[in-house]
Amino acid sequence: MTQLDLNLLVALDVLLEEQSVGGAARRLHLSEPAMSRTLGRIRRALGDPVLVRAGRRMVPTPHALAVRAEVSAVVERARALFAPGRDVDLRTVERTFTILGHDTVAAACGAALLRRAAAEAPGVRIRFLAESHVDVPFLREGTADLEVGVVDTVAPEVHVEALHEDRMVAVVRPGHPLFAAFGGGDDDPTYGSYYGESSSYGDSSFGGSYGDSPDVTDFLFPDVDRAGSLIGPLQAWLVIVVLALIAGCVAAQRGQFARAVGAELSPERFPDAAGDPAERAEGPRFQRLKERIRLEQHAPLVMYHEKRPFCGAGVAYETWVLAVELRPDETKKEQLPLNNRAVLERIRPLLEQLRLPSEFAGHTVRDRLRWLEIDECVFLPAEGLRRREEAPYHPGAFEEHRARAVEEGAEKRRHFLRIRVGGWEEELVVTVFVRVHTQGRMLMLEIAPHVLLPVREDFKDADRAAHNYRHNNVLGKAAWAVARVPGSAARSLATLGRGVGYVWKLLTGGYAGALPDGPALSVRELGSMDEGSTFQEMDAYRYLRSVQDRVAHGVLTALAESGYQTGEFVQKIVNISSGGVHVEGGVHGSTFAAGKYATASSGTAGAGVASQKGSGSNGNG
């Protein structure tokens, strides 16, 4: 007979209890590989796998389940066999005993037990451990030495002794479905013997509802004396009601938005500027503010802030400046006076020609250049004004500033020729500001193009979103509102924070007596998208290219007609897109081209104009 290792019984007992190699290794203070080798020895000795894997856990085999109780009994008898048989002197024992039980056990027996232990076993410490809602074998694991309560374990190593029996009684109201389900009735003698007549039952100090299983009315209308047991259900109902109210508020806000966009803010109510409801609004303060805004938006006199001179015009499109020396042309008999006004008068007719359609197209051409706008404006700094009303917006003041600014070439007061093209139904606006200045036999040309891109897609889709919401069914609206409930709190707090911040700025900013200032923000710019579509970019480039070509042609014409050389100007002009500008050679036999690898030559050999080449750096010589 093969010699048996009785230590395998202890390992087998722990493995069947833990049903895990790792747990058994921890109980026996072994490593997992050592425990795995021990399991292999047990399998060979029994001729059975003992533990097999089922999913992510180990389960005992039928044979292991059959011998489990016997293995535990043998191990327990072996432990008792080797236990010391002599009497124990309690006064010399030093140990901590852990008692597991309900709080009432410690309250009822704790004081007396501690007094007796202090008198008979002063070295013994007693620790009370509260019951856990999780079924954990504290006794078998050694966490507790004694458990007082409802012990339902059948393990052979756990000794169970009955201390007290208690009888559970369920109390329900008359006619409760639970009472009828168990065969009882209002006239049942058991019911009457326990609770007496219905009058005494109704006069009980516990109110008119009993039992551990409250019905729906107990949740909706709880008794004050029993409110503690219903805190959980009430909290759940409260959370549901709050979430429903939030979803209702979100849906109501969306509905109000849809109605406002579909009615008050519909395109039909704004056919043109005259049909704007603000034109018919009452209130002198509102009308005064409206007239002030309209005046400053459309007046040719622009009061600006030095950091934001072109606020509202859009994104700057590579502003460029060049200066050329006015050298007399030796082929001309004399030089005519050349001032800023003369140059502008040469540019303006060429720009106006952009409005004319092709002679073969008739009047069906819809190119937005046909509605090109040309005017003059004067920029004045807002610094120095004490009141907004002191700004010189009346026509006489503008004419005076224009006459002085067009020739003086000052830094703060600047005169510009403004060319504006509004494409895509005024969504894509291209504005070019042109300034010409002559000083010290030098001609300076400043061109500041700006592009105002279309409004963002979410603004354009407002009518579509409102229409879809109004025509959606109730289920769709409810689903939309419920999906936005989680983020509604953060959005509400953010909106509230912005409102509080705005009010705080109004109260503490001192705006009532603030000095006038130039515009800080443009609502139209704030609502613009970051980049336009391919077609819109193509149109913006075409508008800019056309305007810049005509401006350059006009300056060249003014130079040639006044008897000055044009070669330096041809070499220095730079297209804003770095592609090159070409002006036809119809000005007294001259021609030029600017840009990378651009060339220009005159077709008249006797004109005395040599062939010219653009420089390799965008023609900037």
Number of strands: 16
Q: Give the rounded overall mean pLDDT.
A: 77
Over all CA atoms, what is the radius of gyration?
A: 48 Å
- The 3D shape can be described as elongated
Please, how many helices? Answer: 21
Could you tell me how far the N terminus lies from the C terminus, measured between alpha carbons in angstroms? 111 Å
Instruction: Indicate the structural class.
Output: alpha+beta
Q: Could you give a short account of the major beta sheet?
A: 7 strands, mixed
Q: Determine the strand fraction and express it as a percent band.
A: 15-25%
Low-confidence spans: 189-213, 575-621
Helix share bin? 40-55%
Q: Which properties best describe this structure?
A:
621 residues, seven-stranded mixed β-sheet, alpha+beta
Q: In words, what does this structure look like?
A:
- The protein is 42% helix and 15% strand.
- The chain is of the alpha+beta class and 621 residues long.
- Among the domains are: 1-83, Orthogonal Bundle (Arc Repressor Mutant, subunit A), CATH 1.10.10.10; 304-454 and 528-565, no CATH class; 566-621, no CATH class.
Itemize the secondary structure elements and their pairings:
Elements: H1 7-18, H2 21-28, H3 32-46, E1 51-54, E2 57-60, H4 62-81, E3 95-101, H5 103-120, E4 124-130, H6 138-141, E5 146-148, H7 177-181, H8 189-195, H9 198-202, H10 216-220, H11 231-264, H12 284-298, E6 301-304, E7 315-316, E8 320-325, H13 340-352, E9 373-381, H14 395-408, E10 414-423, E11 428-439, E12 442-452, H15 457-460, H16 462-470, H17 474-483, H18 485-508, H19 523-526, H20 534-561, H21 567-572, E13 581-587, E14 590-594, E15 599-600, E16 612-613
Parallel strand pairs: 3-4, 3-5, 6-9
Antiparallel strand pairs: 1-2, 7-12, 8-12, 9-10, 10-11, 11-12, 13-14, 15-16
